[in-house]
Amino acid sequence: MHAHLGDRLVVESPSTGVVRRDGEIIGLHHEDGTPPYDVRWSDTDDVTLVFPGPDAHVQHLETEADDTPSGTGTVGDDTAASRTSANPGDIGRRVAEERRRRGLSREETARRARISPQYLAYLEEQPSDPSTATLFALAGALDTTAGSLRGGGVDRPPGQGHALLHPRLNDLDQEECRRLLSTHGVGRVAVTAPDGRPAVVPVNYEVVDDAIVFRTRPGSVPAAAAGDEVAFEVDHVDEAMSQGWSVLAVGPATTVTEPDAVRDLARRAHTEPWAGGTRDTWVSIRPTRLTGKRITPADQSARR
């Protein structure tokens, strides 16, 4: 039998197949994944050292189907590779940030949550789906809530999380600004609306030949950008890590009217406008000024 942190140990009757008990493997005692295991049982939340018998098998985290009842199966090459790539999931990133914010080591946090430091490292460094019991144990250890660790409050405006203790605000050069604008996404265009009032409107945009382009309807607020110098802003806030960036482009906006250019833009578009409906008026913004800021921890480089 071989297991990884986060796998599920299932104990069932060999004759009926009825599950009697299952739990999350939160601690290994051998590097090759052989027993015994520290298991947090789903029915009691208790953590015990388990030497699995013949009625037990391992359910690997990445697959819905479990191993053979004998438990002799091993994780395939693709699964093993996915475990070694450093690509933490959102829960792991939030756990790591909360732990660092409180000045707790992995060892202390693991002790408080009654899990192994190795399992905590796995949660923080790999995509994972901890059990509800483990999530509540971590929330208690970090003096937060399971909902917060899951990303609760996603409908709130960004920026309500904790500020960095030692933030660094860095100016971005134009090359980095262009890279962050990327080729498409959602940005905000600041215009004077047809009624003469200022407005800021989100639009799906593309970047084509260094121009920012978006689709809209004739007479709409975004269409009012044409013929004026406008501001276009794109940003990203990583609430879990209390950091992010913002890019501002300023330049004249025009309506694209040449039929071949319109067809080319429609052909190259990555997405349909989220607002729906018929939106076949293309507006192009040619930035004459491109600036940006990034906020990071003071001990982290301005970045890549």
List the helices and strands in order: EEEEEHHHHHHEHEEEEEHEE
- The fraction of residues in strands falls at 25-35%
Number of helices: 8
Helix and strand composition category: alpha+beta
Per DSSP E runs of 2 or more residues, the count of β-strands stands at: 13
Q: Which consecutive residue ranges, at least 5 long each, have pLDDT under 50? A: 63-86
Shape: elongated
Mean pLDDT: 80
Strand order, main sheet: write it out. 7-8-9-12-11-10
Percent of residues in helices comes to: 10-25%
The gyration radius over C-alpha positions equals 26 Å
Largest sheet: 6 strands, antiparallel, barrel
CA-CA gap between termini: 43 Å
Secondary structure blueprint with pairings:
Elements: E1 8-12, E2 19-28, E3 37-41, E4 47-50, E5 56-59, H1 77-84, H2 90-101, H3 106-113, H4 117-125, H5 132-141, H6 146-150, E6 167-171, H7 174-181, E7 184-192, E8 198-208, E9 211-216, E10 229-238, E11 243-256, H8 259-268, E12 281-285, E13 289-297
Antiparallel strand pairs: 1-2, 1-5, 2-3, 3-4, 6-13, 7-8, 7-10, 8-9, 9-12, 10-11, 11-12, 11-13
Helix pairs in contact: 2-4, 3-4, 3-5
Describe this structure in words.
The structure is a single chain. The protein is an alpha+beta fold and 304 residues long. The chain has eight helices and 13 strands. Strands 7-8-9-12-11-10 form a six-stranded antiparallel β-barrel. Strand 1 (8-12) and strand 2 (19-28) form a beta hairpin. Helix 2 (90-101) packs across helix 4 (117-125) and helix 3 (106-113) packs across helix 4 (117-125).
